[in-house]
Structure formats: C-alpha cells, structure tokens
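Objective 1.3, modelling of assemblies. Example input:
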Amino acid sequence: MENLVYGYVAAGISAALTVIGAAYGISKLAAATMEASGRQPEVAGQVRFSMIIAAALIEGVTFFALVICIILATK
Amino acid sequence: MFITLLDSLYQQPIIHAVRDSVVVDTLRHAGAATGHGGSEGNVFTQLLNHLLDSRDIEFQPFTHFSFPQFPTVHIFGLTIDLSITKHVFYMWIAALVLIAIAVTAARQNRKRRVPTGIGNLIEIIIVFIREEIVLPNMGQEGMKYISYLLTTFFFILTMNLLGLIPYGVSSTGNISITAGLAIVAFCMIQVAAIRKQGFRNYLAHLTGGVHWALWPILIPIEIIGLFTKPFALCIRLFANMTAGHLVLVSLAGLIFMFRSYAIAPASVLFMLGINLLEFLVALLQAFIFTILTALFMGIGIQGGHEEENSY
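Predicted structure (tokens):
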C-alpha cells in the first residue's frame, strides 16, 4: 500500500516539474520572438512561423513526460 | 487521393496489433480506480468511453450497434485482431469525406480559370503548403513528394476535426493509428534520402565521416536517431489529441463529482473554451506533423549536396 502512495506523489510532482520546464522554455521563446519582431518588423511573419515550430517541438517533449505521469498515476 | 484510401487500408493490421496498448490499459485503470467511489467511478468510465476504442458504436439516447468481428490472425507469433472498432470506422469516414472533398475541388478547379467555392479553399491550403513547407525545406526536388505531404496534412486534419463534432471521435487519439502514420513517414524519409543520394551515400551518412574505429559506437547511435524522430511525431500527435479530449471529459465529470447543478454553467463555459482551443490544436498538430516530415525529408535530400536553402 505504501508503494502505491509513492507512485501517486511521484506522478503529481513530475507533472508539475514537466509543466515548469515547458512553460519556461516556451516563455523564453516567445520573449525572443517579441524582441525580434520589435527590432525588425518586416521579418515578423517568418519569426512567428519558426516560433510555432519550436513551440510544437517543446510541447512534444512535454507530452512524453505527461504520458509517463499518467501511466504512473494510474498503475 | 487514392493514397488516402491505401493509407487507411494499410493501417488496419497495425491498429489491432497493439489493441491492449499501455495507454488504453492505464486509462481503463483510471476508470476502475475511481470506481470504489461507487457511482462516480461508473460515470467516469462511461465518460472515458468517449476517448477509448470500443467494439461498438453508440449514439447515446438512440441506437447502439456493434461492428462485425473477425477472428484473430496468428502471424509469426503475433496475435493480430483485424476486427473493426470505433476508431477504424471513423478513420474510414475521414477517408471518404476527404476523397469527396478532394474530387469535388479538383473538378471545380478544372472547369474554371479562377477557382471559387470549395475549390478555392482547398487551393489556398495547397498553395500554402507548397510555398511554406515544401519549397523552403526541400527545394524543387520536393515537388515529387508533395502529394504524400498533402495527403498527410489533410488526412490528419480531417481525423482531428471529426472528433470535435457531436458524436464524433478523434481517430488520431489512438496510438496505433498515429504509429501507422509515423511508420509511413519514416519510410518516406528514408525513400527521399536514398532517392537523392543513392544507397551508398545514404549509408555513408550513417557513419558520419569519423575514423573507422569509432563506427561500432556511432552506427547504433545513428540508427536509434533515425527512429526517434518518427517516434516523437507519433507520440506528439497522439498525446495532443488525447490530452485535449481528456480535459474535456474531466470537466464534464466535474459536474457529476460535485453532484449539483450549480457547477454546470462554469463547467460548460470551460468546456466551450477548451473546445475552441481544440480546433486550434487540431490544425496546429496536422501542420506540425507535415512540416516536421518535410524538414526531415529535406535534411535527407540536402545531405548529398550541402547547399543552403532560402532561410
């Protein structure tokens, strides 16, 4: 019974850490995009395009960790 | 667009080889684990059936019919179950919808110089994919693969969007279906690289130009690296779709957990917001799958020539 409790605690903590990591990465990305768009508005479209791709890659990694958390929380 | 139909026919054996996949088991465990609350476990399990694959299809207050079941096939020690389930059925519906739309659009565009109506809409999307995805990443060489990339984009988009209509199910929420798409993407990436560089150069790139003593270390790493990219594509699409619908199901289940009608307006408002977000995620995930496949194919194509692209 004890081991199950540790599993739930681990799932909760790891989900929170995953979200912290993803939010930090994507926020740095968004900040760089805003700055670049402000400096040079004519490339704002291309920069936004690359930002979306990078954000999706970061979120892809986040979802790996999230799937593992869900598996941990329900087994 | 016959590629769409072939795609859906090829993916069927793969779908049921992993019928009892890990995530299906865990979601079922989740339903059972809350079951010792009694009635709320049953409700959660019923709500979860919206996400999971099942052998019959229910239109809740009305009908409920079962699909034909085929006996399991034993090949090479694997047990493959080729019976039709809900996700497979919706994948076929997506394929049929897509064939209808594409044939109509092509016919309209053939008749008129300036496209109007649905031909116009499809042409806007096709031109966007050609100008932003294929040409910058793969150059002129990429026009050979544009029909595969267009099929991928429209097929994933249709499957994702079908989950957002009432009584609809996102077939991409099944890991076997996204695994099938990722396997096809893997094959196309290798085909693009081999066709451009030749088989010997392709193998040479696997060694990476280091001293031959390092090859036993480097080659397994490179081969694993070949497989991680489509694996990430598979998991990204599957997890995005399933997570979105899981949030929707959980918000609906909140009403049952609190057992009062007072929570219903807040819950439904949140569900509306998440549903609109799901539209964005559906479009974005189809786009991301397509552009990452194009990017990997472009890396394979340019590995032979080391030329700069327009970025």
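The radius of gyration of chain A is 17 Å.
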